[in-house]
Design brief:
Helices cover about 25% and strands about 30% of the residues. The chain has 5 helices and 9 strands, in the order αααααβββββββββ. Strands 1, 2, 3, 4, 5, 6, 7, 8 and 9 form a 9-stranded mixed β-sheet that branches. Strand 7 and strand 8 form a beta hairpin. The radius of gyration is 19 Å and the shape is elongated.
């Protein structure tokens, strides 16, 4: 049994749940829980967060054995129609629990309305790192990102290769693609907390 498996097993028993009961709550087979607890498989980070919520412990505790909560993540903006992000003058809008593996540079934006449906829904939190200016363009291809275009707009877009290394095609979720767009900054969405 590895450390995370032992902490899952101990927390499950503390809550009075069987492997079967926890599996049913998670929507997985009982053998999946058994594999996690024995260290045969390691749960994905989003599964760790779900397990932690069900077992009334922090994801940090399950992952790293820390009892103390990680500092909250600031919600710094909202995503509205067309994937446009607005940042209010008073920051942060809110504070939320960090996802597993979050760094001190993690921040979130909240989706409002259904402009990004079916990919993102109203109330979803999109976690990303504060912008990394040293990121290679190739790291962004095929990923949903928070992007700031050279004309100053901040958007949620799926990033594709442009005609040159310095240009990108930005795929909107409910609109035509924007081709050969220059970006000032981009940060991949690393985690989604569903509403």
């Amino acid at each position: 049994m590895n450390d995370i498996g032992k902490r899952i097993a101990d927390s499950r028993k503390d809550q009075g749940l069987s492997q079967y009961a926890l599996a049913k709550l998670l929507g997985v087979n009982q053998s999946t829980i058994a594999y996690y607890e024995r260290g045969r498989n390691t749960p994905k980070p989003w599964i760790v967060e779900d397990i932690a919520r069900l077992l009334n412990v922090s994801a940090s505790y399950l992952l790293y054995g820390r009892d103390a909560e990680d500092p909250p993540v600031p919600v710094v903006g909202t995503v509205g129609a067309g994937g446009v992000i607005t940042y209010p003058s008073e920051l942060p809008l809110d504070l939320t629990q960090p996802p597993p593996g979050a760094s001190s540079r993690t921040q979130a934006v909240r989706v409002e309305g259904d402009g990004l449906w079916p990919v993102y829904r109203a109330g979803d939190l999109l976690f990303h790192a504060a912008v990394d200016p040293h990121r290679m363009p190739e790291d962004l291809y095929g990923r949903d990102c928070i992007v700031r275009t050279s004309d100053g707009q901040t958007l949620v877009r799926h990033v594709k290769r442009g005609r040159t290394k310095a240009l990108f095609t930005l795929a909107a979720f409910n609109a035509p693609d924007e081709e050969d767009v220059a970006l000032d900054t981009a940060a991949p969405i690393r985690w989604i907390r569903r509403a």
